[in-house]
């Protein structure tokens, strides 16, 4: 009698084609086959995600990307040279963080360096952006082994051996190595540091499979080091613009590895990063040049008619002057003052506006040091500047006197046409400063006869506009005419060409200097009021230079007329050029007479030294 099949075998045969997946017979494979299948699937997915990193970011990390951000990722992924110029509030720093994390996970052992002007500026990518992304997206969280965020080190380490590190654009960054470099706000990174320190970081990535002799010498598999630049717009005369031009030329020639991309403020508006009212408020308070570069993403540069070039402005002064802070008056001594040197003469120069709602007119105050160079003339240093919307003439006169005495100035240069005559009237009487508890003496026109103003106009100021008794004769009044304006422009450019003017360093370098040298700024560099107070002179210097290089020359009847481009100012230019003309006409001449037998060679040496 035949033996019947065992029950489980009958059940297995019975359910072989069952629609119930839990009853249908299973196909068992060996571990070796499973591992091989898994490897093949991983290869396909890794290849897919490396070719489509935006999919990896969205599907694996779970991070939403806008269309323009996908385009940015695509450009960064396919380029050996990528240059992205984007406006303020276009999420540049966030994209850097997301892209760096994607690279680190997709390419094990990848060494990524983010270079910024300062360590703190670049550190935001790790301390804020990646930190927040890690909290919000679990798959990214499980890829990260550790993060370090302190004033000395900003680093993110991944389980697969990849790292993201932040370095400053300085000599101290030497010795680092990277497979991928992102230069954040590249316009702020000095060219000599970029070329001599940052670019030499690059090296090829060598994944473990390259140790296999089969692949070791295959040049097609070399993963070359890559560098990408992301920045906001800036002056065309600076070196960054030549890099942009190089990138675009390579693009136009058919080089698919070079790509350029640009976005303006409409991107942030379209995607809800900023609202119309927010942008309107920001742009309304900003200088037109700032709006042009930071929001409209249009580089600022001098045209063929421009009378001044940015290369004329020697920016080498690190320490600025500051008046006393309005919330902390110290009447005995201004703790932000600069000590006077032997023979130094100080000037406060101003251009006045009284209408607060006038779009293209501001009151400007600038402080200038004139340092003697025997037989050559006075070396000029612009060490402070501030701007205000027009206000009551009495209040502006009080502010002028505050700055004048805080600066320990000797003379005041004032345009007395239009609104300026009203300020002169208030300056010419005693001024009571209730906040400081002091009375400032009256001021009037200088005693000397000079060519800048006609004698009858000078006498009119002394007799009919000077209200106080025993007024101090310290004001150089300017009544500009077309001929005088032409002379003033020629004189200013001539002194710039002779390198007799020195200006404060750019604000990015100024911030770095303050972080090293200014204890009060270092105590809380994130305090917006404190930050604005200390950085203001450096920002004002940049605005002045921007105004100057946006002035076009227009010959009129044999004279030079400087015309500002649409949307530009020339208030700061007027203020600085007036004081320059006063020094040239009234002080340089006297100093040159005291040559003390210096020959021309000695004079030239003295000039080139400074």
Write the layout of secondary structure elements.
Blueprint: H1 7-14, H2 31-51, H3 53-61, H4 67-78, E1 81-86, H5 92-106, E2 111-116, H6 119-136, H7 138-143, E3 144-150, E4 153-158, E5 163-168, E6 180-184, H8 191-198, H9 213-216, E7 226-231, H10 240-252, E8 258-263, H11 266-270, H12 276-285, H13 288-295, E9 315-317, E10 345-351, E11 363-373, E12 377-388, H14 393-406, E13 411-415, H15 419-427, E14 431-433, E15 438-440, E16 443-445, H16 455-464, E17 472-478, H17 482-497, E18 501-504, H18 507-517, H19 519-523, H20 528-549, E19 551-556, E20 559-564, H21 571-593, H22 600-609
Parallel strand pairs: 1-7, 1-8, 2-5, 2-6, 6-7, 9-18, 10-13, 12-18, 13-17, 16-17
Antiparallel strand pairs: 3-4, 4-5, 10-11, 11-12, 14-15, 19-20
Describe this structure in words.
With 610 residues, the protein is α/β, with parallel strands linked by helices. The chain is 42% helix and 19% strand. The radius of gyration is 33 Å and the shape is elongated. Residues 596-610 have low confidence and may be disordered.
Brief summary:
With 610 residues, the chain is an alpha/beta fold. The protein folds into 2 domains: 41-206 and 223-285, P-loop containing nucleotide triphosphate hydrolases (Rossmann fold, 3-Layer(aba) Sandwich), CATH 3.40.50.300; 313-508 and 569-609, Nucleotidyltransferase, domain 5 (2-Layer Sandwich), CATH 3.30.420.
> End-to-end span in angstroms?
119 Å
CATH topology of the largest domain: Nucleotidyltransferase, domain 5
How many helices does DSSP assign? 22
Side-by-side strand order of the widest sheet: 3-4-5-2-6-7-1-8
Rg (C-alpha, Å): 33 Å
Mean of residue pLDDT values: 84
């Amino acid at each position: 009698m035949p033996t019947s099949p065992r029950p489980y075998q009958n059940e297995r045969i019975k359910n072989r084609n069952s629609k119930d997946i839990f009853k249908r017979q299973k196909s068992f494979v060996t571990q070796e086959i499973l591992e091989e299948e898994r490897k093949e699937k991983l290869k396909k997915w890794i290849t897919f995600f490396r070719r489509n990193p935006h999919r990896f970011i969205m599907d694996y990390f779970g991070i939403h990307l806008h269309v323009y951000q996908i385009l940015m990722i695509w450009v960064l992924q396919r380029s050996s040279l990528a240059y992205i110029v984007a406006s303020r509030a276009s999420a540049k720093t966030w994209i850097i963080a997301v892209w760096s994390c994607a690279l680190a996970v997709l390419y094990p052992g990848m060494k990524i360096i983010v270079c910024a002007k300062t360590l703190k500026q670049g550190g935001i990518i790790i301390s804020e952006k990646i930190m927040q992304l890690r909290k919000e997206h679990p798959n990214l969280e499980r890829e990260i082994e550790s993060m370090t965020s302190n004033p000395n080190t900003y680093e993110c380490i991944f389980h697969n051996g990849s790292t993201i590190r932040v370095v400053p654009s300085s000599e101290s960054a030497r010795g680092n190595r990277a497979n991928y470099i992102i230069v954040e706000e590249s316009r702020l990174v000095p060219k000599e540091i970029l070329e001599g320190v940052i670019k030499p970081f690059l090296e090829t990535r060598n994944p473990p499979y390259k140790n296999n002799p089969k692949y070791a010498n295959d040049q097609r598999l070399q993963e070359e080091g890559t560098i990408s630049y992301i920045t906001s717009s800036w002056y065309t005369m600076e070196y960054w613009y030549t890099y942009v031009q190089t990138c675009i030329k390579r693009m136009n020639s058919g080089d698919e590895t070079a790509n350029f991309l640009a976005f303006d403020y409409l991107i942030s508006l379209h995607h809800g990063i900023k609202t119309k009212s927010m942008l309107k408020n920001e742009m309304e308070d900003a200088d037109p040049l700032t709006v042009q570069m930071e929001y409209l993403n249009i580089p600022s540069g001098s045209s063929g008619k421009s009378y001044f070039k940015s290369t004329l402005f020697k920016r080498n002064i690190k320490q600025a002057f500051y008046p006393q802070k309005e919330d902390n008056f110290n009447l005995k001594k201004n703790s932000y003052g600069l000590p006077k040197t032997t023979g130094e003469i100080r000037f406060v120069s101003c251009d006045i506006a009284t209408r607060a709602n006038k779009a293209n007119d501001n009151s400007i105050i600038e402080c200038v040091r004139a340092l003697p160079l025997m037989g050559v003339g006075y070396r000029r240093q612009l060490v402070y500047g501030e701007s205000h919307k027009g206000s009551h003439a009495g209040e502006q006169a009080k502010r002028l006197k505050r700055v004048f005495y805080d600066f320990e100035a000797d003379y005041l240069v004032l345009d007395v046409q239009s609104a300026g005559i009203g300020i002169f009237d208030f300056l010419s009487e005693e001024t009571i400063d209730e906040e400081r508890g002091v009375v400032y003496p009256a001021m009037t026109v200088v005693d000397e006869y000079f060519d800048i103003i006609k004698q009858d106009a000078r006498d009119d100021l002394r007799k009919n506009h000077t209200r106080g008794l025993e007024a101090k004769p310290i004001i150089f009044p300017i009544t500009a005419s077309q001929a005088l304006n032409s002379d003033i422009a020629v004189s200013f450019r001539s002194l710039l060409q002779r390198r007799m003017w020195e200006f404060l360093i750019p604000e990015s370098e100024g911030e770095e200097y303050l972080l090293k040298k200014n204890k009060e700024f270092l105590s809380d560099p994130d305090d917006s009021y404190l930050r604005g107070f200390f950085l203001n002179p450096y920002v004002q210097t940049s605005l002045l230079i921007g105004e100057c290089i946006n002035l076009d020359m227009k010959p009129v009847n044999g004279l030079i007329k400087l015309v500002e481009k649409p949307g530009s100012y020339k208030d700061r230019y007027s203020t600085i050029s007036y004081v320059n003309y006063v020094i040239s006409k009234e002080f340089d001449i006297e100093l040159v007479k005291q040559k003390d037998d210096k020959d021309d060679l000695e004079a030239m040496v003295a000039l080139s030294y400074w």
